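Lab notebook, bench 4. The sequencing result for the construct came back, and we need a structural model before the next group meeting so we can plan mutations. Quick request posted to the team channel:

Model the 3D structure of this chain.
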Amino acid sequence: MNDILAQIGAMHLVPVVVIDKAADAKPLGEALAAGGLNCMEITFRTAAAVEAIRTASGLHGMLVGAGTVLNVDNVKRAVDSGAKFIVSPGLNPKVVDYCVQNRIPVTPGIATPTEIEMALDAGLDVVKFFPADALGGCKTLKAIAAPYGMMKFMPTGGITQQNLADYLKLPCVLACGGSWMVAKDLIAAHNFAAITELAKAARDLALSVCGAAAR
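Done. Here's the predicted structure in token form:
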């Protein structure tokens, strides 16, 4: 497995961030780190994404990736700004091929066995199960993962503090993506103390389920 994805596996959690003001990236990253989460996925859902990635990537010890990456141009802009990994909602062959050719860790979204096999053919060993909860949650993930023991999954979409442990208990899960600890209203209100507390609670729960070492 790629070293970056192994680092994500060791943390068990990836905060998924939608940020409207790039200036909030620094205090947000500091708040997450204070809660024990030294990783974030900044999504290409706002005009502030590129600058926010650049700012967050400058924080010591913070692993920053780009999410909602829909095309190769997004990949190039994200990597040029310091992103270390790429996440997409679906499996776009052009995006995956570009990342593989350029040795950029990529986790495309999948929802079916066919897409898992497409990812395997591309040489990937980690994919994003999305939208996890809407697709049937742990029950569906367990079922579609069963024939593919060589593949690890990062369920995202509908993950909360309440169901996080259920997902992390599955042997096929590398880590979970979630946004509850970085909710837009908390960022907008600059309530970074609350973000730290939510991050700490999530991290503590993940460690209680998975332990401190990567699986």
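The first strand starts at residue 13 and ends at 17.
Will bring this to the meeting.
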